[in-house]
Task: structure prediction
Amino acid sequence: MIKIVTDSTCDVPADLLAKYDIRIAPINIQFGQQTYREGIDISRDDFFAKLEDTIPTSSQPSPGQFTETFQPLLDAGHSVLAITITTKLSGTYQSAELAKSMLPDADIQVWDSLSLSMGTGYQVLAAARAAERGWSMAEILALLDPIRAGMHLYFTPATLKYLQRSGRVGKLAGALSSLLQVKPIIQVQDGTLEAFEKVRSRVGSLDRLVQLTERAVGTTEPVKLAIIHAKADAEAQALQTRLQEHFHCVEMHVVELACSLTVHGGPGIIGIISYNVVRNPIVG
Result:
């Protein structure tokens, strides 16, 4: 059987990770000289408590951490499909590829989601559901391609200070200085972060997230949605109600953004991830 491995940025809810036996390679979070493995050595509450004093950094799982994740699955006779955060913002994909090269006789494939959070997570779920039905590796990869291509992610941070200090924002960095007095709308475009628009208020930025999602996927075709946030529970719940009323939603998740991503976006960040359902008997 094919087993799915991903990294801890995927934000797939814990019950679904357990249901499909999806394995997680943890992202590393550094506060000063201390390194924590996300989801293992540091809780969400401890992360936010430490964040009040220090802005941390993050780093990809090492190849060794991936081999530790792969090996029990391989020993049980399974093949492995590893689906990672976009390679344009993280070295996680490269670490998984190095781990694959360290296990030359194993059947391992590595897939770049070109996304983050539930943009990766929905690809993980699609692959896991297909694998459960006995699809081949080639069939699963063919399934993932249109999902990846059709993924839309728009978000707005509460503050720019975390993004300004991040080394992972690519083309976004040059645009931040012109957005200091407004609320930016940022999108994931071809695996990178792009400053898309600027809005004058928080309420306006949340409205714009909905408008952009409507433009991306429409309101009549079946869609899968996710609301991602860090310490923005009330706004996320209000958005959930709004999206349920406005879209033809066949699956929705409201998830707290991975701490390793909150490192770069900061508390208060909120976003909407969406894609039109790919019509097939498993994920449709």
Observations:
- The mean pLDDT is 92.
